[in-house]
Every structure is written in C-alpha cells, then in structure tokens.
Amino acid sequence: MAYSDKVVDHYNNPRNVGSFTKDTPGVGTGLVGAPECGDVMKLQIKVNLDTGVIEDAKFKTFGCGSAIASSSLATEWLKGRTIDEAAKIKNTDIVSELKLPPVKIHCSVLAEDAIKAALTDYKDKYASRLAGAGAAAASS
Amino acid sequence: MNHFEVFGLPRKLGIDTVELQRKFYELSRRWHPDFHQAAPPAEQARALEASARLNAAYRTLRDPVARVEYLVRLEEGRAPAAATGKPKAPPDLLEEMFEIQEALAEAKAGGLDEAGRRRLAAERERLRGRFRDEEARLVGPLAAAWDAGDAAERPRTLEACRQALATRAYLRTVIDDLTEALGESQEGHVTHRRH
To answer: Which residue of A1, A31, A35 is in closest CB contact with B169?
Structure first.
C-alpha cells in the first residue's frame, strides 16, 4: 500500500518522540491501543498550570506507519493549544491532513482517543490538585 | 442465516464437534454442486450458495476460539467484515504491552547479544503461556458461563469474552514481534499486521 508523502515524512522523521515522567506537574498521559492490529500508543501533554496552554507534547507509538504518523501529527497540533482547543481535534482532521486511506482511518481514531485520554488524565489530576488545595485552605 | 442456524444449533458455545462433523458431511452431500449438475440453473446457484455457507459455518464453529469471536460479533449485530467496535483491553495489559514493546525496541537498537536473545526468548515463552491461558479461559469457563447464563448475565459474559479476545490479540502481536526480533519468523509466514 502506498503511503502519502506526509505519512512517510512523519514516519521517517517523527516529531516529539519520547515521554515525560508521569507525575511531572501538568502532565497528562493517554495510553490507548487497538487489539485488532496490536498497536499501542502513548501520548502525553504538558500543560502550563496557570494558563491552561499545552506547552509540550510527546508520543511513543508501536504500530504501523499510519499510527505513528497520526500520533506524531497530533503532538504537533497539540503544542500551543489550550486544553479546550485540544479537545476539538477530530480524527477526520488527521485523516485529511495525512490523506489516510479508508483502511487506515482507525489509526486516526486511535490518535484522537489518545488525545482524549491524555486530556482526561490531565483534568483528573488537576481537579484533584485543586480540590486538595481548596480543602487545605479551608482547614487552615 | 447465521452459522449456528446452518447447523440447526442454538446460539451456544458448547458444541459437540464429532456431531458437528457428522452433520457437516451429511449437509455437504446434500448441497454438493456435483449432485445438482442436472438441475435448473437457479437451483444450481442455490446449491452452490448453500455449500459455500455450509463451509464457512463449519470452518468457524469447529474452532472453539473462532466460535467465541463469531458469537461476540453476532451478538453485537455486526457483519463479520466490519470490525469497528472497540473491545477494551484491561489498562494493565496495555501498560505491559507498551513496556514489552519498549524493551524490544531498545534491544533491537542495541543489537541483540546472546544474553539478550535468551531474555527475549524467555519472555516469549512466558507470553505464550499467557496466550494459552487466555484461550483456555475463553473456551472453558467463559463459554460455559455464556451457555449457562440467563439474559441478565449475558452482557457481562459477553464483555468478559471481548476482553479476553482483545488480550489474546495483543499477546499474539507481541509474540510475533518477539519472534521477528529473534529472526525466527519463517519464510511465507503471514503476519497479521504492520502493512
């Protein structure tokens, strides 16, 4: 199957490969997978806790070229967005940017799931921090 | 007509394969295209279709794991070709698969020495054991739970089957990847992904 130039580019020069330590303040981690093809994708965001802007994003994907390209592209798009803006990234945006064929659409779905999972993880952690700070303030 | 109906069976996972084979031969004889050569074209076409359906049904039902996979799809009301659903693998499993893949990538990048190969081979043995356990769970307790369960319990059993199938699929991939890294993949062996 022929990959589009953009997929090949992301595959050969993946952006933002790597990881943050999970408990770094402001880091949200999404780990998702597709059992049908065995792909595993980890995507992390590092959010500025004051502004809510994603300052950095990293990924590590074990899977086919399209899955790697989808998550690589996702990290590029995430940087500089607020978490609300990030939640608006749709798999269809990834499909059209990378010109993914129908059989590879699930790779873009996986990337969207990974973004959502990272955002959820971030919000969960952040909410508990806020609640913790509030409780501490209330009891003092 | 679904695969169970082809054999006049209820939608259950406990199937006597000896009896299934006997019935398969019987129905094969009935629908074999050779016995319908003299029939009108419409009837010949019908026989051919029935024969193909019978073969597909037998191939699936005689394999206890394929049987569960099929039942899950059937219960989801989906066509076999459209695997769009998202069986959720347990999160711990994802973590583990990720770690194994990471270790594998590192081992490959660093070049595999003899100790590294032994470690990977041992890891693969361990995972093969897990793979067998997962299959045994599917065709054993889970299949029995499905057959014995009432309508209220079935969604939970179905979900457990989906999880076990997803786990099995992940394990298969990682076992294949380890085999490939060890340079043991056989010529002509069809890998099921990475296209």
So the answer is: A35
